[in-house]
Amino acid sequence: MPRLALAALAGTAIEFYDFFVYGTAAALVLGPLFFPSFSPLAATLAAFGTFGVGFLARPLGSVLFGHVGDRYGRRPVLFASLLLTGLATVAIGFLPGYAVLGTAAPVLLLLLRFLQGLGLGGEWGGAVLLASEHAPAGRRGLWAGFPQTGPAVGFLLANGVTLGLSATLTEAQFLAWGWRVPFWAAGILVLGGLLLRATLEETPEFRRLAASGERARTPLAELLREHWRPVLLAGGALSVGYAVFYTVTTWSLSYAKEHLAVGRTTMLACVMAAVLCMGLATPFFAHLSDRLGRRPLCLAGAAACALWMFPLMALLRTGEPLAMTLGFTGALLAMVTMIAVSASYLPELFPPRVRCTGAAVGYNLGGVLGGALTPLVATSLTAGQGPPWAVAGYLTGLAVLSLGCFALLPETAPVRRAPAAGPVAA
Fold first, then answer.
1. Fewer CB within 10 Å, N side or C side of the chain?
2. CATH number (domain holding residue 276)
3. Which of 132, 118, 123, 79 is nearest to 346 (CA)?
């Protein structure tokens, strides 16, 4: 299990590294490079629009790779999705800007971002099923939680490279070529990930399905016909997790650049400190779900998000590094309380024959609802100079939606029974 969990974690870390490198670049440099004729606000909105395309592609990727996972095995998904996302990321690093290619530059940027999202949409389902279907039932939450640490690791890698470049290069150097370096580095990481996954075995659950001939012929059709309700509820439930994460890690960088007298390096350091705390807390909450159940932790996380959004904006508005770090950390800890659990919770909502498709589609549908729209909506709501209370209201509304969806989902964790009492002494 440690070897399998490490392979799953490494893959999600590399895939999310690729995805997050783009988010940071969208907040900092892609607007003026690919949309130079726009006003600063319009250029930022356009860059976040291409950012959102990756989320729209993720459900399509989950359908495509979910079909492969349910028909041909979880293992092929792990290789194909990692390779697709990695190649698209490296290609973005070599893509000339508007000054060289004209309108073809933003079109190609949009296409490559779509391919990034397509690959990531397949990666998550394969990685979590690799861990959860190998794990014993009583510890499934713990082992399936390891892939959920991957986003934090990927973010720290991506922004650690960006932070180092931002601190050592001049503004002109960073805009000219420095922002491309993290995209180029993705090629090395993907090669390492492919080598790490080369010796993985297929999961016992899929081997049983293949041996018994019970694989679904058309997983998506069966999912939509018989299991559409948990798919929609899972998407709505996880939407606030995505929204909070990308508010902290992407939109806050743009907001600080436009509205606060806080430098790029300072903001990246504050966000990275909060993400580090999130990553360290992920295994704890994942393991806790084996003891307390999946649903109670998810409900607690959604409620905590609803309560923290206005304090988050108040702390961000101060522009003080310690206050902003506190706000970011509180938000991400609330969010990860439910996201850490989702790797075991979502697969348990679906039968094995459609599990890869169902878990991946539900998870990535939440990305569309929460991740794709949030940077755009938040940027639009803060076009003026006042405090970002409208953003707090928007996030609180999403948290209430998530709370309601979790309330309608069943508990899935195995029931822990007390040991039987021994014979009573005479």
1. C
2. 1.20.1250.20
3. 132
